[in-house]
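Per your request, structure below.
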């Protein structure tokens, strides 16, 4: 069964991580901060999804992240991870409730334990869409994530390139965490 999900098979399950680090600009403090966070992720398998001759297998996912001192998550996402075995395409489509939708993609082998997915606001295929406020104040112009799957854990390192009024050049907002299987 797991072969149908290719490199995504190792992500199926419930996960938690307590060593996350969010490096972002803090508007309230007027500077870049590295903020530790904890995270919970659920990835549930589904498929196949048939589009004509294309057959995708996927993971329905939800994630939430909390700063250590807060009861409410500062970041949540919902979406899908998809695998197309015929082309080796791996995709991650997600929505962030700040008004951002991302479809990131890349190519990986079915047995890959590490792969990268990318998106850009001007990419014709793997795109970022955002609301008016973000376009004017903190536009996500690029996104890249590298996933590394281990035995009972997986890690990610992601960089979102932001065009912000506070910086002359694109600002690299980064997030990284290692998650451990809890279910």
């Amino acid at each position: 069964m797991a072969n149908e999900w290719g490199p995504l098979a190792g992500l199926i399950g419930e996960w938690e991580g307590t060593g996350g680090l969010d490096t972002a600009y803090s508007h309230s403090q007027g500077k870049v901060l590295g903020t530790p966070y904890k995270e919970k992720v659920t990835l549930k398998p589904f498929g196949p999804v048939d589009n004509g001759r294309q057959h995708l297998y996927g993971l329905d996912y939800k994630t939430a992240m909390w700063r250590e001192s807060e009861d409410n998550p500062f970041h949540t996402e919902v979406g899908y991870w998809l695998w197309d075995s015929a082309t080796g395409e791996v995709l991650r489509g997600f929505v962030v409730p700040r008004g951002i939708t991302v479809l990131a993609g890349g190519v990986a082998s079915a047995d890959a334990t590490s792969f990268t997915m990318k998106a850009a606001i001007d990419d014709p295929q793997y795109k970022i869409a955002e609301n008016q406020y973000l376009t004017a104040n903190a536009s996500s112009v690029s996104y890249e994530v590298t996933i590394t799957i281990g035995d009972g854990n997986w890690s990610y390192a992601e960089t979102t390139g932001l065009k912000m009024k506070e910086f002359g050049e694109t600002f690299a907002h980064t997030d990284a965490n290692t998650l451990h299987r809890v279910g």
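The CA atoms of residues 93 and 103 lie 4 Å apart.

Regards,
D.
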